[in-house]
Amino acid sequence: MKEINLLPDRVLRTPSVQLVQSWYVQSLLDIMEFLDRDPEEQATLGHTNPAHPKHIGSIDPHCSVANVVRDAYNMAKLLCDKYYMSSPDLEIEEVNASNSEQPISIVYVPSHLYHMLFELFKNAMRATVESHENSPRLPAIKVMVALGQEDLSIKMSDRGMGVPLRKIERLFSYMYSTAPTPQLGTGGAPLAGFGYGLPISRLYAKYFQGDLQLFSMEGFGTDAVIYLKALSTDSVERLPVYNKSAWRHYQASQEAGDWCVPSTEPKNTSTYRVP
């Protein structure tokens, strides 16, 4: 809460920051109320997480990656079938370098992994269906799950014709989307268009020292790779540091870059040609 107060005044006055600040205050009040209760009362703890008795809070000590992949695929498939009346199949392959006979599982938050995979599946399905609308059969989405000594990697490959290299970084910008903006109030969840799916997914991946990267070949398809830590001891929370040094950085004016930046869109040079 103290770090929030260090934000610039114009940021503190925004409704979104004020809302987050109220959440922190309410969370602190809830904790204080909880600590004042009698620990012997059943109402204090109740039946902790009865639907997932093996979970420790929101963490699953034995999170089956393949199961989460299938759950995310099935939900994205429902949306894709609703909008396009068809959807690509799923092919999963697991490579466990430690024990090839054992299915891959890690200590992780299943809801985080589900969100990342769900967003990637939606993007892959939309690109695949729209780029093969005249094909008799849609190419399958292939998912490779590989567990090594340090990393657990999940690669999702589609044949959705890819995107240009110049657009890769923009895909991780908030509010940017290659899909048209959906109309609110029309009923049902949109498949794409808001522009926050990939940025938040990468934020989830980086939260426990992982990452999310895109490798695209325009004219063929895209590989999306989620990198997670294989060992729970390496999955340390990555929290933002906001102190007075950061405050001074926000107050300082932005200097010009060292490199010239061309236009983000290719120019039509036909008008400059000499006859």
UniProtKB/TrEMBL annotation:
TM helices/strands, residue ranges: none
UniProt keywords, alphabetically: ATP-binding, Kinase, Mitochondrion, Nucleotide-binding, Transferase, Transit peptide
Main location: mitochondrion
Enzyme Commission (EC) number: 2.7.11.-
EC supergroup of this enzyme: transferase
Keyword tRNA processing found: no
GO cellular component, one term: mitochondrial matrix
Sequence ranges assigned to domain Histidine kinase in this UniProt record: 110-232
GO-annotated biological processes: regulation of glucose metabolic process
GO MF, any single term: pyruvate dehydrogenase (acetyl-transferring) kinase activity
Pfam families to which the protein is assigned, alphabetical: HATPase_c
Family, as annotated: Belongs to the PDK/BCKDK protein kinase family.
The protein's name in its UniProt record: Protein-serine/threonine kinase
Organism: Otus sunia
Phylogenetic placement of the source organism: Eukaryota, Metazoa, Chordata, Craniata, Vertebrata
